[in-house]
Amino acid sequence: MSSTTTTGPDGSVGTDRGFFVYGVVLAEAGRVPDGLTGVEGSPVRAVARGPVAAVVGEIDVDRTTGRRADLVAYSKVLDELAGSGAVAPVQFGSVLLDEQSIDEELLAPNEQYFAELLAELDGRAQFNLRASYHEQVVLAEVVAADPEIRRLHELTRDLPEEASYADRVRLGELVARALEDKRVLEVEALLDSVLPLTAAYSLRTGAGVDHVLDVALLVDDDRRSDFEDHLEGLAEAVHERIALRLLGPVAPYDFVGGDVWV
Amino acid sequence: MTVQQSSQRRGGGGGYLQRPAPSGLADVIDIILDKGIVIDAYIRVSLVGIELLTIDARIVIASVDTYLRFAEATNRLDLVEQGGGKPLDEFIGDMQESGASKKVGGAVRGAKKAISGGSSDDDEERRPARKSSSRRRSED
Question: Which of A122, A144, A162 is the last residue of a domain?
């Protein structure tokens, strides 16, 4: 990648260096694989305190904007770590100045919290599930269900936009509300179906005509194949109206307690 | 836990579940943006541009623009009137059928209710009770 820094990937010389923090893991020998590199191609290593360790890599502190390659490097490091044990991701882009601040500001005040969090994440992985309507199908339902929507639809669809502005806004408003009413029911049914196979969930925001549900799910490793099989069946059952898309396993980005302790 | 890029498992289903490998930038951004432990960092490397684009796409605004977008989508609809697809009662028939044999009766019942019951009145923030933001079961 096209780094602007003058220092080599080993971080030996030159300008001010800081530590890009990827996440927190248990402090165990070999927890961070040899040869693992991250942002700027810089080697990744663990800085331990008690039972926990921050996973960090040196970067140029003068750099404040991230690029595509940085983002990909960050997620690769975390997925690699998640592949061999529990990891609590730290938000992308967090840089601490030196090892002392990693120890004193990050690890010392949160040692216990991190240890508990990692115990909770152990043996589990995150999946992101997204449900989207087939727009045409669900809009046809909405139009058929409400006489006022049907009337406005028939009234406005062949008129030029300027001639029907108010009616269009009204139509859009009614459709948006009808879809939201519908969505609430779909979400309830989908979650009822999926959550029994998960350890935790966290709803993500979404928008758009076709949006139904975007949720992060934490799944026990030993229930993963049941979970995946179940979702296959669910996807088949709803496929005429709703498409299901499953990403993962990924590192548990949505299950680290957010900013509770900043 | 085992994380690998594209675990293309074949479940019992006929491949209706989409399982993309999260390698595209859009997916990576979507997965990680604003997620993870927030620490009191010395500096924060930010993703200029990309970030704004993605956040913008997620904002839910009850604005005139949004309504016009919904109206436009609705008026692209030509299924029922112009015979461009199945007639609606056939959709409903299909849904009842699949609902009877599969595990998603709730979603189907919901759709049926919406179809036969007309629109209920506005509900700015109506949510299922347990749709609070996030839950960890083993919380103590």
Answer: A122
